[in-house]
Amino acid sequence: MTAPFTIEQFLEVFVTYNTAIWPMQVAALLLGLIAITALWREWPIAARLIPAILALMWAVNGIGYQFLFFTTINPAATVFAVFFVAQAILFAISAISATSLRFETGRDFRTLIGAGCIIYAMAIYPIIGIWAGHGLMEGPMFGVAPCPTTIFTIGILLLARGKWVVWLSVIPILWSVVGLAAALQLGIPEDFGLPVAGGALFVFLVVDIMLGERRRKLAGLVMGPTDARVSE
Fold it and tell me: pTM for the full model?
């Protein structure tokens, strides 16, 4: 299945969109920096602040880009907008609850991958875009365009723990597949980082689920069936 638009039309939408919302891109970058500062400095408010920032970004992407602009060349963008707004609502609920997520960083491979995704989305992504021939205002920009926002979100989720992580990861992983299809068809080289990030998050989530199931089984063996029933 091919995209119902050309690369020229795709980039022209970004020119119109980026011009219309300027300087929201600067605000998005500042919010991104606040989010990663809260994460690495372990601010007590991080559990509320980071999901709230992500909720705002996904809402802007869903309503601003997908629904108001991308629908002019792609009818499927209406469906995309619904999913992006749904993701924004999930992050908003998570921010309100404040107990559904916690963030952990350390000297491990998962932190390295998460930090790599964040740096890629905020710094490397636009550099590759400029190298590819379309300037900052002629392509996807951090925080206000789907693919760099999704890569950043995946980086944050790789550093998140809690019962909501799996549910918050579903739409970003799905979008990493959609983004790969667009990157292949349209030749947007910076978007090839999206499936890599999505694949990494998927693998870590599967490992988490498997380890969690193993811990539950071990706990059941240690406690015994009678103790397990009592504990329930």
Answer: 0.90
